[in-house]
Amino acid sequence: MRKVEYKDTEIAVKKKLGQNFLTDRNITRKIVAASGAGAEENILEIGPGFGALTREIIEVCRAFTVIEKDRRLAEFIRTEYPQLTLIEGDFLDIDLKPLAEEKPLRVLGNIPYSITTPILFKLLEHRHSLVSATLMMQHEVAMRIVAKPGTKEYGILAVQMQASFDVDYLFKVGRKVFRPQPNVDSAVIRMTPKKEERMEDQPGFSRFVRTAFHQRRKTLLNNLKESYNLELVDSNTLTLRAEALSIEDFFKLFSQLRPLSQ
Ligand code: SAH
């Protein structure tokens, strides 16, 4: 088993927890600068590990909250950074609302790649509790989040995230700056909840987007006709494939169709 040691703490690296530790200070600095983190903010870091990002965040904000699932790493953080509020647990299980009670959260993290998608959907669900989320993830997933219509990366993830967030691709990070080295490159993106909330019916919208992309090569008509009444929809639109539609087009289409009762 691969071991990583830092300041007298040695851990056996857990692949399942997506443990790839950053070793380049220029990159951690760039992430914190790009996040917009500041002194008076309510910051939450996901997966501090050995504190590569943590120690940069401290430079701009003295006290904040971190959540770490690995017991040994949580212990490391508790000892090394007693001024922080440590939640020892799983980000996917915690309730973000109480943490955001006084001020919305600015989330940062070099997140565990094994659970990138569930983390993204949790942030989507809690977008009203956020100022922004600046996250490092696999490069390939970052590309799928920021993808533009008509490209092969454009799909459910892009539409769902871009419907609720302004997404910015910040920069690419090569695999060499991590220990242990992952098999993929990484990228940092920033997601900022849109000011104007467009969707009153998020679960309905999610279902609609998934249905529209169900079989990518099929037309919208073929993907949607069994689940929705399409009478009010412009017939030209229905001859297109989902990948051709902009986020605006998705909103428009969603407002024109009616779910069929199953
Ligand atoms: N931020 C550090 C570590 C990144 S590795 C750095 O950049 O070096 C990802 C970290 O997330 C690890 O510390 C891992 O233990 C932690 N982690 C994995 N799954 C988690 C979960 N569900 N909730 C909280 N932390 C988690």
Quick overview of this protein structure:
The protein has 262 residues and is an alpha/beta fold. It is 34% helix and 23% strand.
Describe it for me?
The chain has 262 residues and is α/β, with parallel strands linked by helices. The protein folds into two domains: 3-193, Vaccinia Virus protein VP39 (Rossmann fold, 3-Layer(aba) Sandwich); 202-259, Orthogonal Bundle (Helicase, Ruva Protein, domain 3), CATH 1.10.8. It is 34% helix and 23% strand. It has eleven helices and 13 strands. The strands form four sheets. A seven-stranded mixed sheet has the order 6-5-4-7-8-11-9, with helices on both faces. A two-stranded antiparallel ribbon has the order 1-2. A two-stranded antiparallel ribbon has the order 3-10. A hairpin with a 2-residue loop joins strand 1 (3-6) and strand 2 (9-12). It is elongated, with a radius of gyration of 20 Å. The mean pLDDT is 95. Residues 17-22, 46-50, 52-53, 67-70, 73, 90-92, 110, 112, 115 line the site of S-adenosyl-L-homocysteine.
| Tally of structural domains | 2
What's the number of extended β-strand segments?
13
| Major sheet | 7 strands, mixed
Mean pLDDT: 95
Q: Number of helical runs?
A: 11
Q: Which hetero ligands occur in this complex?
A: S-adenosyl-L-homocysteine
Weakly predicted, low-confidence segments: none
Which characteristics define this entry?
single chain; 262 residues; alpha/beta; Rossmann fold; Helicase, Ruva Protein, domain 3; 2 domains; two-stranded antiparallel sheet; 11 helices; binds S-adenosyl-L-homocysteine
